[in-house]
Amino acid sequence: MNVNANAAEAAVRLLSTGICVPEGRMTSADIAQASGIPREIVETKLGIKEKPVPGPDDHPCAMGARAARQALERAGIDPGEIDLVIYIGEEHKEYPVWTAALKLQHDIGAVNAWGFDLASRCCTTLMAVKTAKAMMLGDARISTVLLAGGYRNGDLIDMSDPHTRFMVNLGAGGGAMILRRGSEAGAAYPKVLETSIITDGSFAEDVIIAAGGTKQPLTADLIAQGEPRFRVPDPERMKSRLDAVSMDRFAEVVERSVRDSGYSLDQIDFIGLLHMKRSAHEAVLRALGIPGRRSVYLDEFGHIGQFDPMICIELGVKQGLIRPGSIVVLAAAGIGYAWGALTLKWGGV
Fold first, then answer.
1. Secondary structure in 3-state letters for the chain
2. Residues of the chain with confidence (pLDDT) below 70
């Protein structure tokens, strides 16, 4: 038995990423005017210079398909090679109660694949990588997986609501990743190592869209009042509880992911964090002992949900922060609440 050959066959690698960012922009001045937050605060504390906003054709599944086509082109593979499509965009999409993976699969020509939707808010990409890797290692028929989707939850923010102003950074866009198992992927591509996830259901109803579900069906009156939108039923309670645990959980998932991958925190060459207010971003880096020069800050993108990790990869490579051999960590958190981290060992591509 060739142990090295078996190890290569079992490895899951990242062939490519793709992103779709709409042309429209909302500047810090626009956000200040809409929210009543001073522009200086928007830029310095919330950390937003501008964010992409969707145009009339920038729908979530459509943006995911555009990003998927870019990822396919970069990987140099045919859509027919994809075995599985996992839609990782938001539930706010073209139609409610709709499996977007099947539309995306059809639109890109992945005729030999099957697909499903996976959702865990802004942690979806990391959870999908963990899910895809486990499926690839457990089923020999799955060797190439596409993760793709789109995001425009900014539609659901009431800029005048002071309790949801921490979400004024929500932008729009799409992203895609192509993963492949086996020696065919080659050591030149980044190796997908371990993903760590923590979820805490005690926060499950702290940030919700109350109108439009079975508890509060939409009515003409609710629509006239501007619903459905994200709301925080008890903002003081959420803030006090979340502040007490969030930083520790960010640190825990990163530490666990890196350790389970066979490395230590001081070996991290680059960390990509979802967009959050600047002080929180810096606090996470301090807690992990990672200097700011080993990360990027998404102040020209805002928060594009689960696609922040892909944007971080693109920026990290473009700025020369991710190089062959780099240990790369992606970390995110999503309302609900979930925290996740993924470790990658960069190859030569």
1. CCHHHHHHHHCEEEEEEEEECCCCEEEHHHHHHHHCCCHHHHHHCCCCCEEECCCCCCCHHHHHHHHHHHHHHHHCCCHHHCCEEEECCCCCCCCCCCCHHHHHHHHHCCCCCEEEECCECECHHHHHHHHHHHHHHHCCCCCEEEEEEEECHHHHCCCCCHHHHHHCCECCEEEEEEEEECCCCCCCCCEEEEEEEEECHHHCCCCECCCCCCCCCCCHHHHHCCCCCCECCCHHHHHHHHHHHHHHHHHHHHHHHHHHCCCCHHHCCEEEECCCCHHHHHHHHHHHCCCHHHECCCCCCCECHHHHHHHHHHHHHHCCCCCCCCEEEEEEEECCCEEEEEEEECCCC
2. 1-9, 349
